[in-house]
Specification:
Helices cover 33% and strands 22% of the residues. The protein is of the alpha/beta class. The protein has one domain (1-339): 3-Layer(aba) Sandwich (Peroxisomal Thiolase, Chain A, domain 1), CATH 3.40.47. The chain binds acetyl coenzyme *A.
């Protein structure tokens, strides 16, 4: 895997960007492992022991990705104490956009009334929220934008093959959001890192539905527009790339894992998180884990976890935290933040 991507460091001459509020939204409908036992040949013991997932949320047909995203955005605006009119940029990370175009960010803009904002989407699968946060940081650093709404939102239930036990037990729907802004007296985001390796595209992807393999009646019946995954290879690359990304951002921030109050990793699989904790020599109680309740919600996962950490008081002002993610592409990213 190409882990030598150049590091991106915030310049000390630029304005820092801080997270001033977070929010999240999960659909009401809970899909338990027991219910999955009735859909495919699986069982609760297999799912829990291999993944740590006990249940996930599934949006109903009337709820689109932009609905999930708008609900998370409203919660983040309330948490930050800002009005929609103050937002001048909306970035939505998703692989399940409402439509190919317009962007899901444009739909969110209308739903929350952020009439001044410019809007676009980012496609980096499960790494999307941290890619979007880093884009937001740079817009704030250069001074072109002041208040940026970053959202990770996915309705994976629409792209899961519900007859494939290898994948359907893993995923769920949800959205998480953060408001970023320069805050006097706060260092905010201290260091970030992003990387990709397209040579591994086919270990985790959706082969059909784009212009390369448009949907036809025949290939739709074969599920060409649903998630295909080589689980073992994905597992291996997830551990390697997240560890590397964590170390690069920590080094860039001149910190070690001992300086971290909390680590918020991508919520794909408890065993992946335990392997990273083991190799970083950090006790598991410093990792935020909520995948048991949500499964893997792709771009939303780390955003929902960040909101949970914020609302449950996992970090106090001045604490350093690490966010680290991995996703299809392959993509990976990390961010060290002074809270
Ligand atoms: N229930 C019961 N048995 C199952 C299930 C299931 N849901 N799924 C697979 N099995 C079977 C397999 O068919 C296989 O049976 P076989 O030996 O008869 O062929 C057996 O269990 C072992 O399968 P493996 O794939 O080897 O199981 P493994 O221990 O590797 O666990 C898992 C599978 C959980 C998918 C693991 O590989 C993993 O977590 N990989 C990473 C997945 C991931 O994180 N994906 C997303 C990351 S990026 C993103 O978020 C988009």
């Amino acid at each position: 895997m190409n882990l030598q991507a150049p590091n991106q460091l915030p310049s000390p001459n630029h304005r820092s960007a801080s997270v001033i509020g977070t929010g999240s939204y999960a659909p009401q409908r809970v899909l338990s492992n027991a219910e999955l036992e009735k859909m495919v040949e699986t069982n609760d013991e297999w799912i829990v022991s291999r993944t740590g997932i006990r249940e996930r949320r599934i949006a109903d047909a009337s709820e689109s990705t932009s609905d999930l995203a708008a609900a998370a955005a409203r919660a983040a605006m309330e948490n930050a104490g800002i009005e929609a009119a103050e937002i001048d940029l909306i970035i939505v990370a998703t692989v399940t956009p409402d439509m190919f175009f317009p962007s899901t960010a444009c739909f969110v803009q209308t739903k929350i009334g952020a009439t001044r904002a410019a809007c676009f989407d980012v496609s980096a699968a499960c790494s999307g929220f941290l890619f979007a946060m880093d884009i937001a940081r740079q817009f704030i650093a250069t001074g072109t934008h002041n208040t940026v709404l970053v959202i990770g939102a996915d309705k994976l239930s629409t792209i899961v093959d519900w007859t494939d036990r290898n994948t359907c037990v893993l995923f769920g729907d949800g959205a998480g959001a953060a408001i970023l802004r320069h805050k006097e007296g706060s260092n905010g985001i201290l260091a970030t890192h992003m990387g990709s390796d397209g040579a591994y595209a086919e270990i985790l992807y959706i082969p059909g539905g784009g212009c390369l393999n448009p949907i036809t009646a025949e290939n739709a019946a074969q599920g060409i527009n649903t998630i295909k995954m080589n689980g073992r290879e994905t597992y291996k690359q997830a551990v390697t790339s997240m560890l590397s990304a964590a170390n690069i951002a920590l080094q860039a921030a001149n910190l070690t894992s001992d300086d971290l109050a909390c680590i918020i990793p991508h919520q794909a699989n408890l065993r992946i998180i335990e392997a990273i904790a083991d190799r970083m020599k950090v006790p598991m109680d410093r990792f935020l884990v909520n995948l048991d309740r949500y499964g893997n919600t792709s771009a939303a996962a780390v955003a929902i976890a960040l909101d949970e950490a914020n609302r449950t008081g996992r970090m106090k002002s001045g604490d350093r935290i690490l966010l680290v993610v991995f996703g299809g592409g392959l993509t990976w990213a990390s961010s060290v933040i002074e809270w």
